[in-house]
Design a protein that fits this description.
The chain is α+β, with helices and mostly antiparallel strands and about 1200 residues long. It has 9 domains: about 150 residues, Lamin Tail domain (Immunoglobulin-like, Sandwich), CATH 2.60.40; about 180 residues, Galactose-binding domain-like (Jelly Rolls, Sandwich), CATH 2.60.120.260; about 70 residues, Sandwich (Immunoglobulin-like); about 130 residues, no CATH class; about 180 residues, no CATH class; about 50 residues; about 70 residues; about 150 residues, Sandwich (Immunoglobulin-like), CATH 2.60.40; and more. Helices cover about 15% and strands about 30% of the residues. It is built from 15 helices and 69 strands. The strands form 18 sheets. A 7-stranded mixed barrel has the order 34-35-37-38-39-41-40. Strands 11, 14, 15, 17, 20 and 22 form a 6-stranded mixed beta sheet that branches. A 6-stranded antiparallel beta sheet has the order 13-12-16-21-18-19, with no helix packed on it. Helix 1 runs antiparallel to helix 15 and helix 10 runs antiparallel to helix 11. About 45% of the residues are buried.
């Protein structure tokens, strides 16, 4: 039976796939099939990260186990060996589920994840490939468009049953002693005296939680009494001998052991069966959000334990402790009689079954219905019409957020938009999978906002008459952005519209009328959904912050977050918006205008936010237990107790949540914090305690809180995080409304003092928590390593993002942008009008405060000397002055690059400054000021360059061909090992290489070079791997060293630095300059090696090498071209590419038929033939090279590895001509 069903495709693809299978007899005989996959998984199955990702199901239909070691999965005809299996075995009649998540995890015994995801829009392949990388075992030549929460795969004739399901009768007991031992697990145990109820068994101390899943509440019997419950289910099986599979699904909190007729069949978070007692507890927790979903356990190996007729499933339910506030045990048992797999019949399945035989399916899908209106906000009395072009199709719809099914309302007449509604519609046709759900959302506007216009984005929130509280409130949100005109109206096309949930934020400010709230995007099932808003990285969680009485300039939070990001420390990205908050019935009116808000990211683990490893409940040993964590010093969330005794602090759990962390993780982190605290002192940097703390982040976090005088710094909203294997970092910063001379809180009024005044005095910046031993409870004006580093970073930030000019420019820009909306905001909130006569008065006050603050902090730190001129390219004889304004300072300097201070005294090489320094050659001036016999200033450095070494880069092999068999017979090298850089002395004098090094691109110090000087015109080569280079290019080129690192195949900055760190040249190359140099075998060659080095960054300054593989070490003396002119892949030698070239290659590979190759008589043993026909650049010639040509010709794939231009290949005749 043919394992693939072919649709209407071009001949070439049919031929190609047919050939695949012609070569796969041995693999097919093993019976491996991709029986099901899902590319649009919204709620079917979660991976170990609790994420709904794509998955692929592989079934072994043979009679023997198969080891998949070396097999591949791929979604690309151009990369058949895309993701390789580890050594995992599938038994006969068994399934294996691989998540197609892009996470690339392949540890045998753990969850498997491919390095690609499945294209849900269709058009790609999905195939299982043999270990030799050339033949297809099973798969799909062209995936059709995939449907939300449906799967796709092969039809089966299997029979499914659920002998134990929802609402099953159950008897349960919470034991009071060990009198029963393990007798209660037995089939014939008399449980008639136990409590009888319906599934499930448990209790919920914080409703609603599990309440809907619990038949009888066991709160009184278990809470603070016993973490164990004995549970027994009776069920019937008519003929156990017919069964092929049996799957136990468990909803559980927190652990269990399950016994079938007395035999242990499955367990989780449980002690061993022999160790279980009447009051055992779970060994680990199972998070509430996971406990409501079934976790499936394949118990097919225990089918022999079944009896005909009555059977008993006895479950020892386990809570983490008797004080845990919830508990749940809710099983289901499913059985399968596996039928024939109809390999050629492909179907959609509306009930996906990963790891089990496929359910009844549909071969086609109904077409989506059409809506007469797109989502948006409308005025008047709009109606929405639904339609389909299929006469017999029935449209069903819902307006409650659920996906329509066969019982939903049938569409018969236009739907009136009388408020905020979401219409979800599907088309139903006989014999077809119902269409994908189509959703449109509509908001109704009152006429008094129909002409509203703004220069800011507008966020409309509708909660259907419900107030936003401290619990989640579901509703809808719509966001419109200004277009080309710079203005926006509420009826413009939405940037975002959809189901959204909201929760009130704030502790001390949580009760005010202009509330701040969390904004969580959700899907139709109510689960959070990642979306892109305002070009922020995709996420589901955001914050709507409403500046109110404290911040009447409306920008304090946003300002500090922006400055943090400019300083290189991630903080929530902000966007100013205006908000309509509609919490009443009827159309959205002007009464719902809620003023100016800041829409911003929420602090959360995410590659675009706090980029740390995800910590799961199973990560309980090093190195996994070491991260990632996000913690904070703050008030506790309701029900949380925090991590106490952590280096003298109580930390609150952010990631993971307190209810999701394990005991081992809490213990590990507490011990880490205690060791960290013990390591801290004023010389932390010298002691290199970076093993525990990231010094730079700790200093930046402190500065970013002290500069605006944050009265709650470190003690409230004091975030910190730790990645796996890394030190603890401070940040991100958060919450700055009570700062910078704000209203209604006088503690931050004075910019010219360290500590705050009034009220509780706020944070003592140099005495609080873990910062105390670093500062010695004093401002950083002393001479400790920490104080010096702090002052140096302050000075650096003042020359950059915290400089007065830059900060004032940002405030002016935002003030101008907010001016119009600020008027509307203060007309809405009249009780908090600006203090200084106008919004601009508040802006001016903020500018004045920050200017005074920055200047005052400058004055508190010991002044450093400055150089005039500061450095750079200068003429020989230039006079350099060292200046300082502070009285009583003695200036010392060095000219040899050393520090003028040694301990607390001038160094042996230090010179006392008395007169200007004359620069006669390349010189580094390093200087400090000393005050009396005590404190020293931070160091000031200037580099003065009078001449730059005359070195240029003349050739660059950045994306080489894979090594050939002749070059690498032992498979020791990679294409990266074949990279090289060619340098030339383009001057008229000898160049010393001492002190020269690469700063970017690769790592190499010329002090380690094999030569110390370069003569005028001399050319030398740096290589990635000498042995690989010699194998390809021989002993001719002069190799002077081996660099570390590798060159990017795409684009990279190359920087060569002189002896004093001054750039000799710096430029960025890109693969788009000359495509034939991008993995097609040619190098980049400098057109004119004598040209100024500042032209290296221009594509016109480079050309492809004249011969394949480049000409290292011969710049200006390139050899005469060798070999004939060819176009890569042109097997029929007609000077072009066509389907014939692919067909002839396939015939040669699989049929021979006396076909002779053009570049030698030894077939693929000749290097010329291999070079000509290796179309995918893999270093091998096989079926994928034919596929590569076909993909290029018919599907817009990449051209052959040698490109489309005529190139010379040694051993080949001329088959094309180069146009002059």
């Amino acid at each position: 039976m043919n394992p693939l069903r072919f649709g209407p495709r071009p001949f070439w693809l049919f031929f190609c796939v047919f050939t695949f299978f012609a070569c796969s007899d041995s693999a097919s005989a093993q019976g491996l099939l991709i029986t099901e996959f899902q590319a649009f998984n919204e709620s079917t199955i979660q991976d170990e990260d609790s994420e709904y990702t794509d998955w692929i199901e592989i079934f072994n239909s043979g009679d023997a186990a198969v080891n998949l070691d070396g097999y591949y999965l791929t979604d690309s005809v151009e990369e058949l060996a895309k993701w390789q299996f580890p050594a995992v075995t599938i038994g006969p009649g068994r399934f294996l589920v691989v998540f197609a998540s892009g996470k690339d995890r392949r540890s045998a015994g753990s969850e498997l994840h491919t390095n690609f995801s499945i294209e849900r829009n269709g058009g790609e392949i999905l195939v299982l490939i043999t270990p030799d990388g050339s033949s297809v075992v099973s798969g799909y030549t062209e995936i059709p468009e995939q449907i939300e929460d449906a799967s796709y795969g092969m039809a089966t004739d299997s029979v499914f049953a659920e002998p134990l399901g929802e609402g099953a009768s159950v008897r349960a007991l919470v034991p009071q002693n060990d009198i029963l031992g393990d007798t209660w697990r037995a089939f014939d145990f008399d449980d008639s005296g136990w409590a009888e109820t319906t599934s499930g068994v448990g209790f919920e101390g914080r409703p609603p939680g599990y309440q809907a899943l619990i038949g009888t509440d066991f709160l009184e019997e278990m809470y603070r009494v016993n973490p164990t419950a004995y549970i027994r289910y009776d069920f019937q099986i008519e003929n156990p001998a017919e069964l092929d599979m049996m799957v136990l699904g468990m909803r559980y909190d927190d652990g269990f052991s399950a016994f079938l007729n007395g035999e242990l069949v499955a367990s989780a978070n449980s002690p061993a069966a022999a160790a279980l007692t009447w009051n055992s507890d779970a060994s680990s927790s199972h998070a509430d959000r996971l406990a409501v979903d079934y976790v499936e356990f394949d118990v097919s190996d225990h089918i022999s334990s079944l009896r005909q007729g009555r059977n008993v499933l006895a479950i020892h339910g386990l809570n983490t402790s008797q004080t845990s506030n919830d508990f749940l045990i809710y099983p289901r048992l499913r059985t399968v009689v596996v039928g024939d797999i109809q390999i050629a019949t492909r179907q959609y399945f509306d009930a996906p079954s990963p790891g089990a035989p496929n359910n009844e399916g549909f071969e086609s899908v109904a077409e989506k219905p059409a809506f007469s209106r797109e989502s948006g906000a409308y005025t008047g009395s709009p109606t929405v019409e639904l339609s389909t072009e299929v006469p017999d199709a029935v449209i069903r719809y819902t307006m409650d957020g659920s996906v329509p099914d066969e019982t939903s309302t049938v569409y018969s007449e236009p739907i009136v938009v009388d408020g905020a509604i979401e219409i979800i519609a599907r088309a139903f046709e006989d014999g077809k999978l119902p269409s994908p759900a189509k959703r449109e959302t509509y908001l109704l506007l009152h006429s008094n906002v129909s002409n509203f216009s703004s220069n800011l984005p507008v966020v409309i929130v509708n909660t259907f008459g419900r107030q936003i509280s401290e619990s989640w409130t579901e509703g809808y949100a719509l966001i419109v952005e200004p277009g080309e005109t710079g203005r926006v109206r509420l009826t413009d096309e939405p940037h975002y519209i959809g189901k959204t949930a909201f929760k009130r934020r704030g502790s001390s400010t949580g009760g005010r009328q202009k509330l701040s709230f969390t904004f969580e995007a959700r899907n139709s099932e109510g689960d959070d959904k990642d979306v892109e808003i305002f070009e922020f990285p995709e996420e589901s969680d955001y914050v709507m912050y409403g500046p109110y009485n404290f911040d009447r300039a409306l920008m304090r939070n946003a300002l500090m977050y922006e400055l943090s990001n400019r300083a290189g420390r991630w903080a929530a990205r902000p966007r100013f918006v205006e908000c309509y908050l509609h919490t009443r019935a009827g159309p959205i009116s002007s009464a719902s205008y809620w003023g100016v808000y800041v829409f911003m990211e929420k602090i959360k683990r995410n590659s675009g936010r706090v980029d740390i490893a995800k910590l799961t409940e199973q990560d309980n040993a090093e190195p996994d237990v070491s991260g990632g964590y996000i913690m904070k010093v703050d008030r506790p969330d309701p029900g949380d107790s925090g991590l106490t005794g952590a280096g003298g602090l109580t930390l609150r759990w952010v990631e993971p949540k307190e209810r999701e962390k394990s005991t081992q993780q809490a213990t590990w982190l507490r011990n880490y914090c205690n060791r960290l605290r013990s390591s801290l002192n004023a010389n932390t940097i010298i002691a290199n305690d970076g093993d525990y703390i990231d010094v730079g982040s700790w200093i930046d976090h402190h500065i970013l809180n002290v500069y605006p005088k944050n009265v709650d710094a470190f003690r409230l909203s004091g975030y910190m995080f730790k990645d796996r294997g890394g030190p603890l970092q401070m940040g991100p910063i958060w919450d700055f409304d009570r700062t910078m001379g704000c209203a209604d809180d006088g503690r931050a009024a004075d910019p010219r003092s360290w500590n705050n005044s009034g009220g509780d005095g706020g944070t003592r910046y140099f005495q609080f928590g873990w910062y105390s031993p670093l500062f010695g409870n004093q401002p950083p004006v002393g001479d400790s390593a920490w104080a010096r580093a702090y002052r140096a970073r302050w000075n650096e930030l003042r020359r950059g993002p915290l400089g007065n000019e830059e900060v004032m420019a940002l405030i002016d820009e935002w003030g101008s942008m907010l001016n119009e909306a600020a008027t509307r905001n203060f007309n809405k909130w009249t009780g908090v009008r600006p203090r200084f006569g106008s919004f601009q008065g508040e802006v001016n006050h903020l500018k004045t405060w920050l200017t005074n603050r920055g200047n005052w902090m400058d004055a508190q730190f010991i002044e450093s000397p400055h150089l005039e001129p500061e450095g750079g390219l200068v003429d020989s004889g230039t006079q350099v002055q060292i200046l300082i304004g502070a009285p009583g300072a003695t200036i010392y300097y060095t000219l040899d690059g050393s520090d003028p201070r040694s301990g607390n005294n001038p160094s042996a090489t230090a010179l006392r400054y008395q007169e200007p320094i004359t620069i006669t050659g390349n010189t580094v001036v390093r200087t400090r000021a000393r005050f009396g016999q005590g404190a020293w200033s931070s160091i000031t450095e200037g580099t003065y360059v009078t001449s730059i070494p005359t070195l240029s880069l003349t050739e660059l092999m950045y994306h080489s061909l894979e090594p050939t068999l002749a070059e690498d017979p032992n498979d020791e090298f990679s294409k990266t090992n074949m990279e090289f850089l060619e340098l030339k002395n383009i001057g008229d004098e000898e160049v010393s290489l001492a002190g020269i090094r690469f700063g970017r691109g690769v790592i190499f110090d010329f002090d380690d070079a094999l030569v110390g000087t370069l003569a005028p015109g001399q050319v030398v080569v740096l290589v990635n791997e000498p042995a690989a280079f010699i194998a390809r290019y021989g002993q001719g080129p002069t190799i002077i060293g081996e660099y570390r690192g590798s060159l990017s195949d795409r684009s990279e900055t190359i920087q060569l630095l002189g002896p004093l760190g001054t750039p000799i040249f710096e430029f960025v190359y890109t693969e788009t300059w000359h495509p034939t140099t991008d993995g097609q075998g040619f190098s980049l060659v400098n057109v004119s090696s004598d040209a100024p080095v500042d032209t290296l960054g221009e594509g016109a300054s480079w050309r492809p090498s004249a011969v394949l593989l480049g000409t290292p070490g011969t710049h200006g003396e390139e050899p005469q071209p060798r070999g004939g002119l060819q176009i890569g892949g042109d097997l029929d030698q007609d000077g072009g590419l066509s389907i014939t070239d692919a067909v002839v290659l396939l015939q040669y590979l699989f049929q021979a038929n006396g076909i002779e190759l053009p570049c030698g008589e030894s077939g693929l043993e000749d290097e010329g033939n291999r070079t000509l026909l290796d179309n995918d650049g893999s270093g091998l010639v096989n079926i994928t090279d034919a596929v590569h040509i076909l993909s290029f010709l018919f599907q817009g794939g990449n051209p052959p590895a040698l490109g489309l231009e005529c190139v010379r290949i040694e051993g080949c005749p001329d088959a094309c001509a180069v146009e002059e």
